[in-house]
Design brief:
The structure is a homodimer. With about 130 residues, the first copy, chain A, is of the alpha+beta class. Chain A contains three helices and nine strands. Chain A has a single domain, classed as 2,3-Dihydroxybiphenyl 1,2-Dioxygenase, domain 1 (Roll). In chain A, β7 and β8 form a beta hairpin. In chain A, about 40% of the residues are buried. The mean pLDDT of chain A is about 95.
Chain lengths: ~130, ~130
């Protein structure tokens, strides 16, 4: 079921400083920041040869990463995203195995304009997993 | 400087249960557990089409992931590993930028038999970064 690792998402307090670090110190290809108001984050994409890293900075009062940054003031790895071919088939397989899908269970349109679901970290070794229909 | 994402490492309490979860529920290709006494971990490799996930379970009393699991009882993402062409050139570039390299600064031989270094999470958005000479 699991396909490519689509991205690793890192929550940061200051996306300008984090971009400078990845572009300068680490010598990576880093996009310009993009504000995604409907997702409550400003995002930067770091392009690696085989996948990408996404830096996320909170945007607005109800950002989904605000609490994470309260608990992890330096920032940290927030989630990993795996691609699946069919998000509904993936969801049903997970629910049949007893794993919990966050929210209503209906896929939402994610930051890349594709259907996504998030899985409960308690059911996956403390790891927040996003599934994205490739 | 940064090359491919070599792997994402996830610390787990019970590598047999975590392997079953990835193989069964998530439908991924999962290797048999391998005890790496000199690294203080038992490791399992999950092969994705573009990179891999490594599950790490503590091995022995001085495991480098024991403290992490004390703080994160469910487990969690422990580090990410980026490939670099020349580990010594990478180290010197990092030190010249004021970033901290863990340990003596001399590369060690990592779990894949290649030279590796770890960078200080405080200097990289709370993320433990491993660099591996590809």
């Amino acid at each position: 079921m699991l396909g490519r690792l689509n991205h690793v998402a890192i929550a940061v307090r200051d996306i300008a400083a984090a971009s400078k670090l990845y572009r300068g110190t680490l010598g990576a290809e880093v996009s310009e920041p993009e504000a995604l108001a409907e997702h409550g984050v400003t995002v930067v994409f770091i392009t690696l040869p085989n996948t990408k890293i996404e830096l996320l900075e909170p945007l607005g009062p109800d950002s989904p990463i605000a609490k994470f940054l309260e608990k992890n003031p330096d920032g940290g790895i927030h989630h990993i995203c795996y691609e699946v071919e069919d998000i509904l088939a993936a969801r049903d397989r997970l629910l049949n195995s007893g794993a919990r899908v966050l929210g209503s269970g209906a896929p939402k349109i994610g930051a890349h304009g594709k259907p996504v679901l998030f899985l409960h970290p308690k059911d996956f070794n403390g790891t927040l997993i996003e599934l994205e229909q490739a």
